[in-house]
Amino acid sequence: MTLKFARFGATGAEEPVVVVDDADGRAQYFSLLPLTHDIDSDFLSRDFVGVTQAALDAGELPRVVPSGRVGAPLARPANLVGIGLNYAAHAAESGLEPPSSPVVFLKPSNSVAGPYDEFPGLPGAGKLDWEVELGLVIGRHAHLLSDEQEAQAAIVGYVLANDLSERELQLGGAGGQWTKGKSLPGSTPLGPWLVPATDSDGGHFDVSSLPLSTRVNGVECQRSTTADMVFRAAHLVHHVSQFMALEPGDVIITGTPEGVAMSGRFEYLKSGDVVEIEAPGLGAQRIVCA
User: Fold this and answer.
1) What residues in the chain have per-residue pLDDT under 50?
2) For residues 26 and 149, what is the distance between their CA atoms, to the nearest angstrom?
3) pLDDT by residue (tens digit) across 178-219?
4) Beta bridge partners of 166
5) What CA–CA distance (Å, rounded) separates 109 from 103?
6) What is the pLDDT of residue 175?
C-alpha cells in the first residue's frame, strides 16, 4: 500500500495526516497525532512508513476531514539544498554547457511554502521565474557516504517542488549571485504530499523517468522527465554528503528541465499569474503571484 503524508492548517500550526486511497481511488485521511506532533526530523528518521501502517492496521489513527490550508508536507527543513543546471536542455537554453560536477547552492529554510500558497514575490522584481523540480527527502544522517547505494538508502521520500527564482538578482550585474535570486520568502513551494521511497509492501517509488510539467496561465512551458537529469538522485546525495552533513528532514531539490522564462520563449511572472506544476504520484501545485 502506498501511503502519502501531508500537513494541513495555518502556517506554523499544521497538523500531520496520512492519506490512503480506498478501493475506489478516493482519498481517506487519518490523523498522525497519536504517533507524532509533526512530520519532522524525528518522525522521518524512524521507520515512519512501518509505524504508520501498523497504526492504521490496528485502528489507532482517527479518520479526519482536513479543511483549510494545505501546508508543505514536512516541517521546515534544517537544510534546503538546490541543484542547478541539472538538465542538459535547460543548461543549453541558459547558454551554458552541462556541468561536469553538480552545481550546488543553499536556499533558506523559510523559503518553504505550501503547494497552494500565494507567492509574494519581491516588490519591483521584473524577472520572476518558475522551475518544476523533484525533491529528495533525507531520512538519516548522511556525511561522507561511501557510494551511491548508501546514498540511495538515505532518501526516504520524494516531494514535488518549485524553485521560484528572481533572475535579475541571481544573474544580473557584478552583484548577481544564485542565492540572492533564490531566497525570497515563499519561493520554494513543496507538496502537496510526501511519497515514501519505499512503501509498506516493500515497493519503490520510481523516479528514474518521472514526468514533470509546468503551465503558466494555462500555457504549457515545461514538459520533460527525470530521465534527462545530468546527475541522478543517488549521485546528488552522495556528492553533497562529501562536503556537508545532511540530516533527517533535509530536502534536496534536483534541478529543472527546459522551458523557463529565462530562455526568452516566455514572459517573466507578474502579479496575477498562475503557475501550475505536476508530477504523477507526487501531485500538483497551483501558485498565484501576488
Assistant:
1) none
2) 35
3) 889 999 999 999 999 999 999 988 899 999 999 999 999 999
4) 128
5) 19
6) 66
In angstroms, rounded to a whole number, what is the distance separating the alpha carbons of residues 38 and 166? Answer: 31
Most distant CA pair in the chain, distance: 60
Judge contact between 189 and 131, C-beta under 8 A.
no
| pTM listed for this prediction | 0.97
**265, burial (CB in 10 Å: exposed 0-12, middle 13-18, buried 19+):** exposed
Say how many C-beta atoms besides its own lie within 10 A of residue 202's C-beta: 6
Do 241 and 104 meet the contact criterion of CB atoms below 8 Å apart? no
Q: Would you list the DSSP string of 100-128?
A: SS-EEEEE-GGGEE-TT--B---TT---E
Could you tell me which residues come within 8 angstroms of residue 271 by beta carbon, excluding any fewer than 6 positions away?
Answer: 121, 289, 290
pLDDT at 207: 98
CB 185 within 8 A of CB 110: yes
Closest to 181 (Cα-Cα) out of 163, 168, 196: 168
Rounded CA gap, 137 and 105, in Å?
A: 16
